[in-house]
Design a protein that fits this description.
167 residues, 2 helices
Length: 167
Amino acid sequence: MRPRRSILLALVVLLSVALAPLAGLPAWTSDDLGSRGWVWPVDRVRITRPFIAPPHPYAPGHRGIDLEASGVVRAPADGTVAFAGEVAGRPIVTVDHGDGLVTTFEPVSSDLAPGTRIARGQPVGAPAPGGHTAASEVHFGVRLDGEYINPLRLLGGVPRAVLLPCC
């Protein structure tokens, strides 16, 4: 019985280490990113495509999360607009939050000019056509010191499920 338990424990450890990069988290570490008070950039949270960390910087992956966004897109934290304009025909807004944290929203159109200070929860723009997302969705990417990380690390994980009555 003991050898089976050892094998099972070894498999759990191996899977934890192997799957940690897919969740955008380094293996066996913790951080304080979730305690920074960030808020969701959309009113109704529905993740339509999760973060998928690439195995190396030039590999394919999904370096952010796609969110349903039927209304205003808001700043998840205080910051300064670093860029608001088009890149390859897609409207993009980038906000520098300091401490090496930068967020990018696309496709999002905005009237804000680079250098504008914004507060947590303040509107930064509205969903626009273009990009890889479906209509009424936005891509929300976060970089920490130039490296893409899973935005859920700053938002406290997956939002709590709300059970609705059935039948």
